[in-house]
Amino acid sequence: MDIATALDNTESKHAEPGTDFVPGPVLLIGPPGVGKGTQAKALMAEFNVPQISTGDLLRDHRARRTELGMAADELMSKGQLVPDHLVNEMVADRLALPDCARGYILDGFPRTLAQASWLDQYLIDTNAAYPVVVISLVVDRDDLLKRITGRRLCPQGHIYNIYSQPPKLEGICDVDGERLQQRKDDTVEVFEARMKVFEAETAPVIPHYESQSRFAQVDGFQDVGQVTDEIRARLKALRESSRPGGH
Ligand SMILES: [Zn+2]
User: Fold this and answer.
1) Is the pTM higher than 0.70?
2) CB–CB of 198/205 below 8 Å?
3) φ, ψ for residue 116 (rounded to 5)?
4) Which of 35, 53, 141, 168 has a Cα-to-Cα distance from 3 of 20 to 30 A?
């Protein structure tokens, strides 16, 4: 969603009756393939809050050729990483927009302990109503590997898994007889590479929130709806214990 759309959407929608819960800033953490994107979408729809993705912010600033975007461009053209302070400024700009007032789902940020500390301080400095809370979607590594590498897709959209939900005939869709395919990213090698990145990036951030009781784990291997229900319950419990002045 671009900035203009974000502004247009503000005030135009109200949460459904009975969902007046204010989620505040939420960071969803989970390994690749755990269903983080699906859960983020469900929470955005339920609470009418935006997703704040540093990838999107960077693309937006570069496309609009803002000062921050051009500074990032220059570094990236030299093959350098965009430093924390530029990313932080882009996040600060975005969080100041009115559609973030009731909360937002953080995606790809904070990625480091330094960013997490910056965000905490930013929320204090701007008198934000709530600190960030973290929901970690947890699954057994081998189960996740089977879920991803066992996935087979029919061109018509039917989905199988050779371990948990195999077709009657190997490689053939039960419904329409089409040949099943495996996505080229659904391999052990891609999975291991992504897990490595996840573990390297996420490991330092979790203890920061855990030590302040702003962290909860949810079993990511339940039904999609059950996971959403549990996230909602955990979120409410965390907010109860992190009310302003309540810590
Ligand atoms: Zn099919």
Assistant:
1) yes
2) no
3) -65, -45
4) 35
Which H or E run includes 25?
A: strand 24-29
pLDDT (0 to 100) of residue 20: 78
Name the H helices within the chain: 3-9, 36-47, 54-63, 67-77, 84-95, 113-125, 141-149, 188-202, 206-210, 224-241
Please tell me the distance from the alpha carbon of residue 131 to that of residue 146, in angstroms, as a whole number: 36
Residue type, 125: D
- Which pLDDT belongs to residue 144? 93
- The rounded Å distance from CA 223 to ligand 1 centre is 22
Q: How many Å apart are CA 201 and CA 196, to the nearest integer?
A: 9
How many Å lie between the centroid of ligand 1 and the Cα of residue 136?
33
pLDDT means per 10 residues, the chain with 247 residues, are: 51 50 93 90 94 93 95 92 92 95 92 92 93 94 94 96 96 97 94 90 88 94 94 94 56
Active site residues: 36, 111, 151, 183, 194
Cα dihedral 179, 185, 190, 195, rounded to 10, equals -110
Domains observed in the chain:
3-139+202-241 (3.40.50.300)
Q: Give residue 177 CA to ligand 1 midpoint distance, Å.
A: 7
Q: According to DSSP H, which parts of 96-185 are helical?
A: 113-125, 141-149
